[in-house]
């Protein structure tokens, strides 16, 4: 606008010389010419400041001058010949002075305008530089000619380059040589980066790339082309984020305690092998008696034992195998081996895991059972896991510390077992159980002194099922407490209707004996039926005593103090220990039927039978012989001094049709 005003002033001053020469002046035309010229000058200024071609900007300036002059002249009319008029006409000196003043004003305006534009550009440049320097990312701008035009301090920091080592205007090669020198790049890397960067300068689209640096740091480079000018490269140090991400991913796929893979990692490994249709086998490993280690020595020792077992497994497997902890005391191995070789390897694991180990001064004897299954085409990871679990269950049922491979018959057995489990659930809810009572005779008096309650169950499809079959399944299914509670309550209900001199004996499994609810079940049953506690006797096996001797001893002592009787069942067949008879409060020893059966023909069995009866008498407990099926066996038991007998010769187990229909005495000729 200053330039436009100056040009218009020059035009007006020049025409003022004609004011007294018949000259008519058009204010409107002059105003329009000045406005149009000024607009063209503003357009010229804008183009000049935006790097528009110089020829075009020059033409704009000339056009502005012509617009002001010629448009203004178009409105001026000279009506009379020119004449030199002295007097009112402006003197040449005044015209020169006005012209000079106008030129000066125009020059000052132009200088001021240029100065302001320069200051504005400098402020914009400083602002841009401050923004670039404040960026958390390193930045580099390279023009189309392949020269470095801009960078910031963050870039120098990321690439360990001092400020004085780098300057703008250098070529890509010089720029990279400087970086390579301070970063100690290998020549091959320098060449590769150079080729890539020269290609990036001409990139048509933006892209990101993650770069692993030689010092372990991770940078994300973003390439952003600038139209017709070059390319901007930014570098973001994401080392901390990637480390955190890797840590989260590690914990998502590994067990914290043992650093083995977890269930999720195992499933992903199997899925990858299944996708590739590769032959492999799955080994499921369960540590034997691990719960006892935790209960006896504490969870700290248990954790260290798990770590030890994980290290043993790691030392046994090859690089192509994968070891995982499934949870608790269960681990797994995925091996690229057919089932035959995998089973042989599993036997080696069983042997190695059975070696004694000392942890914090405690000598432990770990062991494991293993189930092995091989993947077959069409089999899912979940189905393979179920097969290995079936093989593991079979190994544990066979006696632990062994490895079994999956057989198709196991699936059939599982279906049958599940059928039994479902039936047990229904029986518990709907009263599907029955009790049979087998008489026990007192040899001294020849009369029935009590009955043993024996659980019977008729499956709706499979018919009568032996307790030897369904009791272990009930224990595994977690139903034994409910079933045991029913047996105790039902036996006491029948006992309440019998003669006061009779007692009833009920069998208590190892799982029941380990339950805190057993004492409550016993007490509730006798109280509900108005019975004296000594009329209820519980029978336990020697096997139940060895699971947790300290806990069992304490529980048996409490049972004795409440007045209940305790019998040691099947004596001589389990892991017998005379210390059990010495330390625990037994009222009766029930000698296993196998000794009675063989006593007449096997001197050793006879010796054991006589010694057990004598031991019972010395300890002040009742010596009770089981399995008396003939009169000769009854006579033998009387001869060696047995106190009580039980067996088919005395009476078979019977399910009472009515509550009061139970006989109280056996026939005289059976015990005579």
What does this entry look like structurally?
- With 672 residues, the chain is of the alpha/beta class.
- It folds into 4 domains: 27-77 and 91-134, no CATH class; 135-242, Beta-Lactamase; 253-406, Alpha-Beta Plaits (2-Layer Sandwich), CATH 3.30.70.270; 417-646, EAL domain (TIM Barrel).
- The chain is built from 25 helices and 23 strands.
- The strands form 5 sheets. The protein has an 8-stranded mixed beta barrel with strand order 15-16-18-19-20-21-22-23, surrounded by 4 helices. It has a 5-stranded antiparallel beta sheet with strand order 4-3-7-6-5.
- Helix 24 links the parallel strand 22 and strand 23.
- The protein is elongated.
- The chain starts with a helix and ends with a helix.
- Residues 659-672 have low confidence and may be disordered.
- Which strand order does the major sheet show? 15-16-18-19-20-21-22-23
> Which regions are unreliable across 5 or more consecutive residues at pLDDT < 50?
659-672
**Oligomeric state of this protein:** single chain
Q: Provide the structure class.
A: alpha/beta
- Output mean pLDDT: 84
Short key terms for the protein model shown above:
51% helix, Alpha-Beta Plaits, elongated, 19% strand, Beta-Lactamase, 672 residues, five-stranded antiparallel sheet, PAS, eight-stranded mixed β-barrel
